[in-house]
Design brief:
The complex is a heterodimer of chains A (about 650) and B (about 280). Chain A is mainly alpha-helical. In chain A, about 65% of the residues lie in helices and about 5% in strands. With about 280 residues, chain B is an alpha+beta fold. Helices cover about 20% and strands about 35% of the residues of chain B. In chain B, the strands form three sheets. Chain B has a seven-stranded antiparallel beta sheet with strand order 7-8-9-16-13-12-11, with no helix packed on it. Chain B has a five-stranded antiparallel beta sheet with strand order 6-5-10-15-14, with no helix packed on it. A four-stranded antiparallel beta sheet of chain B has the order 1-2-3-4, with no helix packed on it. The chains are: A mainly alpha (about 650), B alpha+beta (about 280).
Chain lengths: ~650, ~280
């Protein structure tokens, strides 16, 4: 059962791919009509390049995602209000029907024209999968539960969608989202993978664990692809895959180990860009439907990261189109030097722009100094980035054979470097895009030396040494990141007791109308994600509700508790008939910290806590008849129903 | 004549490969060397408690639940001289005077190895000091919920020691009691006794009203309930040891009264961390 649940995570990738490819192939049938001819210009020539064979993959995925989102929006804002069709059954039923149809188209297409998988494609897939297995083993060692903290909020949205309460703005679906950072696109994909039927907390954990593994493989594959396309050496591709899989950017981007909207956008962008680069090298352009699929979908996955990715990708696609018409375009415009200039000017100007007010002031917490960013870099790479990237840059400047792809890569390196180094809030998130290019130059730094080794087996031996080094760096980085999460021998955000509490909540309260839960930010964030019971803002609880909770914790008097609970305000659920007060060891620990931490969106009690002696005294003092009823206790949590 | 260029060429290739190997090796070593280290390490779990190294010794504590520290430190430990007087092993003045030179530090490579070993359960916290010819080492051996703390003192020359004490600090609000007889040593009122009974199922026995005890008699095991952190710690006497509770200094002392003429003293303390009170054989 566990493996089946984990395989359901495949649908996040498989379903849009099947739908996208099926629709494109279906349209191909009508290309015989002359007025469709320009619309669908599929590959006319036979592929000569193993890379080119996969070129359309990002576009298939993109169009599949776009179709799913458009279908959801169409039903929500047009069909359901117009004809009263149930959004839930219209969306899920419709997508599954289209999916089945497209699957049929795909099967027929494969039967008529089987795709030959060459060893050049199989080797990267096999090697990356093997590396990813090793990385996942290390990552989950003494961590039985997923460590992607954000998955609880994504799961909350996914469940809300499965209930049929879809909105384009995430803040209108759950008050865990105070800010609309992304549309609910990936949540639609999760919902499709999990529907119908509500997954138990344990099944959800299995699902997200499976998804992490698949995501890691996708990061490794696009990293391999990018490195191979730029330098065209198998060993460079291999090292690119190694760096992609085995380096954990453990400061806010978390690209390889966390499936997030921005990390998915980064994978789509990087893969698509690599294919664009490949086409450029072969003096070709991508068909417009392939480019526009990617351009359309990126901001629909994540607004800021996706938009930047879209602009970059779009700019280079336009460049590729212009370059065909003006072959000497590259020589006339020294893009690399312009970007270096832009970097310097941008870094100087960024210090004068104040964006700390964004997201109710949360932005200020995510603006880091150069010193802090240096610390992040050293936690992840040691001195590796300082030593290898300059070598890679030198290699790129000196290499005569691959001037175009290396020139573009330099532009990307300096461009993303400038963005990440800028003195602005949230910019470290863009490292999820930039990391692929920094890794590329680190790999080129290695290759810049390795290319002088004439003995092939020595070259591969040294490459294995590089793999060993990256593995050692990964271990220390992972241990460093996990160090603050130690609880009873495990590195974890949640415990078995949290899961039991969630199972209780799911069984007793999920699906009931008017139920609202409050606890400390971390506990309610976790329990809402696992059980589906609505909380007052999850980890992003507003200050007023935090003060109310603190008042409750400081008083063991039932009257005071009742009075404070009545003041609770949820951003979505206006009239709650049943309020659940959940107190865990975390809650009591949270109540004891300084006020500035209690009110901070960045501070949480990250690890599970059991109830202490004084905590249990408070709990047993509180119960009073029907108004405050203790409905659940465990060594970790107590749940009161307050009416 | 024809072969010489080939041999030279091959030799040249090998030389280049060697140089590349050395340079890349240096870069890889430099990459690892520059890695950041965790704020505090090694830290290991003993049940609900963590064991970590602090400035003055090893402590059991709970992360994110500050205020509960149970520390073994040379500042509280002592040796007994021939007249039965306690001689502290180290004072705060000694610690201040000795400064950073007192604590032998691992080099970066050793630290990196420690970080990795700890993650895979191959390394437990240890506290080391060197002062005026004396080498002091506190090591921990964590096995599930049990921690065995070992103190080793190496003197520069042999000396006569009439006994030694190893201590564990406890907090002002802790409830400390004999794990066998359930006799409480710290102050406790009726209401608190009722709560302990209700929550732990224990019928603790307080001292009669008006009576207090500064130092308890000899015990075999002493348990601690901290009102603010979950779990119960129990300090057990090993063979030849006694456990004494000093409520004045808030110390649990494990005392070994064996006579020694030696330049190396070893003493052990066993602490168990449980979620609930575990009955012990009388």
């Amino acid at each position: 059962m566990q493996i089946i649940t984990e395989l359901r995570a495949l649908l996040v990738y498989f379903l849009p791919l099947v739908i996208g490819r099926g629709l494109v192939l279906g349209l191909k049938q009508v290309r015989k009509m002359s007025w469709w001819k320009e619309l669908v210009r599929l590959r006319e020539k036979r592929e000569e390049d193993e890379v080119e064979k996969w070129q359309a993959l990002p576009a298939y995925y993109a169009w599949g995602v776009v179709v799913i989102l458009v279908w959801a929006l169409g039903f929500r804002y047009w069909l359901t209000p117009l004809v009263g069709l149930s959004w839930k059954w219209g969306f899920f039923g419709g997508v599954w029907l289209v999916g089945l149809f497209c699957l049929g188209v795909n099967i027929v297409s494969w039967w008529r024209k089987p795709v030959k998988l060459e060893w050049r494609s199989l080797v990267p897939i096999g090697v990356v999968t093997l590396l990813a297995s090793g990385v996942i083993w290390l990552w989950v060692y003494r961590s039985p539960y997923p460590l992607n903290w954000d998955w609880y909020q994504h799961q909350t949205l996914s469940r809300i969608i499965q209930e049929g309460k879809f909105e384009f703005e995430t803040s209108k679906m759950s008050d865990t989202f105070q800010f609309n950072s992304y549309p609910p696109t990936i949540h639609l994909l999760h919902a499709l993978g999990q529907f119908p039927g509500s997954m138990t907390p344990q099944r959800l954990i299995d699902y997200w664990r499976g998804l992490s593994f698949l995501h890691l493989i996708s990061v490794g594959l696009v990293s391999w692809l990018l490195a191979f396309v730029v330098v065209r050496k198998p060993v460079v591709g291999f090292l690119g895959g190694v760096f992609g899989v085995m380096i954990f950017d453990s400061a806010f981007s978390f690209t390889n180990l966390f499936f997030l909207p921005q990390t998915l956008a980064a994978v789509v962008f990087t893969g698509a860009f690599a294919f664009l680069l490949n086409a450029l090298q072969r003096e070709k352009t991508l068909p417009w439907w392939q480019a526009w699929g990617v351009i359309t979908v990126l901001p629909l996955i994540h607004y800021s990261v996706g938009t930047l990715a879209m602009l970059v990708y779009g700019a280079f696609w336009v460049y590729s189109k212009l370059k065909q018409k003006v072959p000497k375009l590259r020589d006339r415009f020294p893009f690399v030097y312009l970007v270096v200039l832009a970097v310097v000017v941008g870094l100087m100007v960024s210090g004068y722009i104040d964006l700390d007010y964004l997201n109710q002031g949360e932005a200020a917490l995510y603006r880091f100094s150069l010193e802090e960013k240096k610390e992040f870099v050293e936690n992840i790479y040691g001195y590796g980035m300082y030593l290898l990237v300059p070598l890679g840059v030198v290699y790129a400047f000196l290499n005569e054979k691959r001037r175009m792809s290396l020139g573009i890569s330099l532009v990307m390196l300096f461009g993303f470097g400038a963005v990440v180094l800028a003195d602005l809030p949230y910019v470290v998130k863009f490292y999820t895009l930039g990391r692929f290019w920094f890794h590329l130059f680190m790999v080129m730094g290695v290759w810049g030396l390795l290319q002088y080794v004439k003995q092939k087996y020595v070259m591969w031996l040294v490459s294995m040494g590089v793999v060993g080094t990256v593995a050692a760096m990964l271990v220390v980085n992972v241990v460093h990141w996990k160090n603050g999460l130690l609880h009873d021998g495990e590195y974890t955000h949640i415990s078995d007791l949290d899961i039991s509490a969630a199972e209780f909540l799911a069984e007793k309260y999920y699906g009931q109308k008017g139920v609202l839960m409050i606890s400390d930010p971390a506990t309610q964030f976790i329990l809402e994600g696992l059980s589906g019971v609505d909380s007052v803002g999850g980890a992003y609880m507003v200050a007023n509700n935090r003060r109310i909770l603190h008042q409750i914790m400081m008083s063991s008097k039932p009257d005071e508790v009742l009075k404070q609970m009545a003041l609770l305000h949820d951003g979505i659920l206006e009239n709650s008939t049943t309020k659940l007060l959940v107190v865990s060891g975390r809650t009591f620990a949270w109540a004891e910290v300084e006020e500035k931490d209690r009110l901070s969106l960045k501070f949480n009690i990250w690890t599970p806590k059991q109830l202490a002696y004084e905590d249990e005294k408070w709990i047993y003092s509180l119960e009073r008849g029907d108004q405050i009823r203790l409905v659940y206790t465990s060594p970790g949590e107590a749940i009161f129903e307050v009416r | 004549m024809k072969q010489t260029p080939n041999i030279l060429g091959k030799a040249g290739n090998w030389l280049v490969s060697l140089v590349v190997l050395l340079v890349l090796g240096g870069i890889m070593a430099g990459s690892i060397y520059g890695l950041g280290l965790p704020y505090r390490f090694p830290v290991v779990s003993a049940g609900l408690f963590e064991v970590g190294v602090f400035e003055s010794g090893l402590s059991l504590y709970q992360f994110e639940r500050e205020g509960a520290f149970y520390t073994v430190t040379p500042l509280n430990d002592y040796l007994l001289d021939s007249q039965g007087y306690r001689q502290p092993i180290l004072t705060w003045d000694d610690l201040d005077a000795g400064g950073d030179e007192m604590k032998p530090e691992e080099n970066k490579w050793e630290q990196l190895a420690t970080v990795v070993e700890t993650y895979f359960g191959k390394n437990d916290p240890k506290y080391m000091l060197e002062y005026q010819g004396m080498k002091l080492e506190y090591t921990s051996d964590v096995n599930g919920r049990e921690v065995q703390l070992t103190r080793r003192i190496k003197f520069d020359k042999s000396r006569l020691v009439d006994g030694q004490g190893m201590t564990l600090t406890f907090g002002r609000r802790d409830i400390v009691f004999d794990a066998e007889s359930l006799q409480v040593f710290t102050e406790i009122d009726r209401e608190e006794l009722d709560w302990v009974h209700r929550l732990f199922g224990l019928n603790l026995i307080p001292f009669p009203v008006g009576q207090t005890v500064r130092r308890s008699g000899v015990k075999k095991a002493v348990s601690i309930i901290n009102p603010d952190v979950p779990g119960i710690l129990t300090v057990e006497a090993l063979d030849g040891q006694d456990v004494v509770v000093d409520t004045g200094y808030r110390l649990i002392e494990v005392v070994d009264k064996e006579l020694w003429w030696t330049n190396e003293l070893v003493m052990r303390m066993r602490i168990t961390s449980d979620e609930k009170f575990m009955e012990r054989e009388q």
